[in-house]
Amino acid sequence: MPSGRLIKQVVYEGMQFVCLSVPVFVVIERFASLMLHVTGDLTAYWLVVAASIAYVTSISLLVWVPIRYLILKKRRILTDITQWRPTTLAYVILCTLPCFVILIAASKVQVDKGPHYRYDHFSELPVSLVLFSLICMDIIERINPFCLTGQGDNGEMELNMSGPVLTHPEQVNSVSGRLHSERGQNGVVANVSATGRWRDPEPASYLYSSSHSGSLHFLWSRDMRSEVFAHSFLFWMDVVELVRMAGVPDVFYSGWIFAGYILAFLSCLRLVLTPHSALLPLAGFLLQDLPFLVLRLALTSVHGFVTPLFYTMKNLLICLTFIYFNFMTKLRFFRRESMF
C-alpha cells in the first residue's frame, strides 16, 4: 500500500498539471469561439482547438515532466538553486505568458474587424482562471515540503511567507544591565534605548502573544499552513485588479490592452523568487507598484476611473515609502536623531 507521503505527492503533481493545462485549454477554446464568430468557418475553430492540445502535450513531455523529474529526484542541477523556483518559472512562461498573449490577440482581431465584430472581451472566467491557477501553483509550492496532518512548525513555515512576519521579537537593549533591572519609584521598568532616549514598548508583545491559557484559548489558535492561503491571495490582489481593469471594454478594445497584460505578466515574474528572497521587495517596487502607478494614472486621465482609486493610492504610498526608507533615510539630513 502506498504511503501517505507518496499519495500527497501524486495529488500535488496532478493539481499542478491541472493548473498548467486547464487555463490554456479554456482561454484557447474561447479564442477559437471568437474566430468562429468572426470568420464563420468551423475549420478555423477546430484548428485552434487542435493547436491547444498539441501545445499542452508538447510542453508537458518536453519541459514540464523533465523539470519535475529532476526536482523530485533531487538532482543537483536544480536542488542547488535556493533564490528562485524553476517550477514556477516554467509555469509562468508556459502557461501565464501564452494565455496573456492569446488575450491580446483576441483584442487585436476584434479591433481590426471593426465594432460590429466585438464578441468577447474575456472579462471574467478566462482571466480569473489564469490568476487562480497561478495562485494555486504558488500555494502548492510552499506547502509541499510540509505535512498536512499534525501541528505545523510555525518557525519553518514563516520562512515561506511572502510578507514580512515577526518571528523572533527581541526587547530593545537598555543602556546597561543596571538600568534594565532598576525600577522607578512607581514600580515601572525604565525603558531607555541605547541613545538614552525613551522608547515605547515593542509592539510584538501584543501582536504575537503566546498565551494559550483560559477557557477562550482557542482564540489564540494559529497555524501558518492556513495563513499561507490568505497571504498568497492577498499578495496577488493588485495584479487581479489590473487584469480586471484590462477586461473593461474601453481598455480591452484599445491599445492600452498591451500595457495592461504586459505589466501584469512582468509582475507575475515576482513569483519566481523564493518568498524569503531579499530581492522580493525591490522586485515588487520595480515590477509592480511603480509601473502599475504610472499605468493607472495614465488610464485615469484618459478613460476616467476604470480602476478604483484605492489601488492607485496603494501604489503611490508603497513607492514613496520604499524610496524614503531605503534611500532617503541614508542621507545625512535624515540621519539626524534629534528630529524624531
Task: Write a structural description.
The chain crosses the membrane at residues 12-32, 44-67, 88-109, 253-272, 305-327. It comes from Esox lucius. Keywords: Membrane, Transmembrane, Transmembrane helix. This is Transmembrane protein 236. With 340 residues, this protein is mainly alpha-helical. It has one domain (4-148, 230-330). It is built from 14 helices and no strands. Helix 10 packs antiparallel against helix 12 (256-268). The longest helix has 36 residues, at 4-39. The chain is globular and about 65 Å long. The N and C termini lie far apart (66 Å). Residues 155-172 and 174-211 have low confidence and may be disordered.
The number of helices is: 14
- How many domain modules? 1
In angstroms, what separates the terminal alpha carbons? 66 Å
Overall mean confidence score, pLDDT: 79
Give the biggest sheet. none
Q: Cα-atom Rg, whole angstroms?
A: 25 Å
Taken from the alpha-carbon principal axes, the silhouette is: globular
- The low-pLDDT segments are 155-172, 174-211
Keywords: Membrane, Transmembrane, Transmembrane helix
InterPro entries: Uncharacterised_FAM23-like_TM
Organism: Esox lucius
Protein name: Transmembrane protein 236
